[in-house]
Amino acid sequence: MPQTDSPTPPDLRRHAPATLRNRDSILAVLVRALPGHGLVLEVASGSGEHAAFFAPCLTPRRWQPSDADSDARASIAAYAAAAACPTLMPPIALDANAGTWPIAAADAVVCINMIHIAPWSAAQGLIAGAATILPTGGLLYLYGPFTRGGRHTAPSNQTFDAGLRARDPAWGVRDLDDVARLAASHGLALDETIEMPANNLSVLFRRS
Ligand SMILES: C[S@@+](CC[C@H](N)C(=O)[O-])C[C@H]1O[C@@H](n2cnc3c(N)ncnc32)[C@H](O)[C@@H]1O
Question: What are the phi and psi torsion angles at 104 (to 5°)?
Fold first, then answer.
């Protein structure tokens, strides 16, 4: 009997080019801002490339990726399997909007490039959920473009914002003051704002 080759399994890994451009500058902030150990929950991990890059660099912290989208979770799982990093967990299904999150506690919550590519309710859910699971002093880290005082910080951000709103009127670049006010109403105090390459911000909140 001739041997038949088993079919090659599909490669479920997605590629988000921006992750390669922003990961080093984000990692530099995380290294100094995260607690030295414990569990980091990443909300909206997307392709999973950040998780696979950050987790080995941030050992012994454990990195828990998540996403609301099942195809994204398949990609994250494929990157996590390839990384074979003992501190990188398999992804969990987490919709920031859900009233109860599938994880009861984390030492830090990281969310990169989500709140402008989702309705405002996702930012509300993210902040409410993070406030529920973080300990006192725990970090909520946001990364992405923001307006400041209602103004774009660069023409490229304004163009990007218009493109987002054309795709979905509920999406759009958020104003830092609105996000900080929302966070404060949940006991998350704005601790630090760091200008990042390509007109993005790292925004650090601490649970008071
Ligand atoms: C632009 S991608 C960013 C992914 C990744 N953090 C990165 O920087 O490459 C936005 C991600 O947010 C996820 N997302 C959108 N709404 C969400 C929600 N309500 N809860 C959790 N994830 C959500 C999408 O599935 C998508 O993977």
Answer: -85, -25
Q: Quick check: is 183 in a domain?
A: yes
pTM value is 0.96
Taking the C-alpha atoms of residue 152 and residue 173, their distance in angstroms, rounded to an integer, is 9
> Could you give phi then psi for residue 9, rounded to 5 degrees?
-65, 145
Using alpha carbons only, give the angle 173, 178, 180 rounded to the nearest 5 degrees. 110
92 belongs to a structural domain: yes
With a 6 A CB cut-off, is 128 part of the ligand 1 pocket? no
Range of the domain at 75: 42-207
For residue 16, is it within any domain? no
74 vs 111: CA distance, rounded Å: 19
CATH of the domain at 129: 3.40.50.150
At position 182, the amino acid (one-letter code) is L
- Give Cα 100 to chain centroid, integer Å: 18
> Could you report the per-residue pLDDT of 19-70, keeping only the tens digit for each?
999 999 999 999 999 999 999 999 999 999 999 999 999 999 999 999 999 9
For residue 2, pLDDT over 90 is answered with no
Instruction: State how many domains the chain has.
Output: 1
Pocket test for ligand 1, best of 94, 110, 114, 201 (most atoms within 8 A of CB): 114
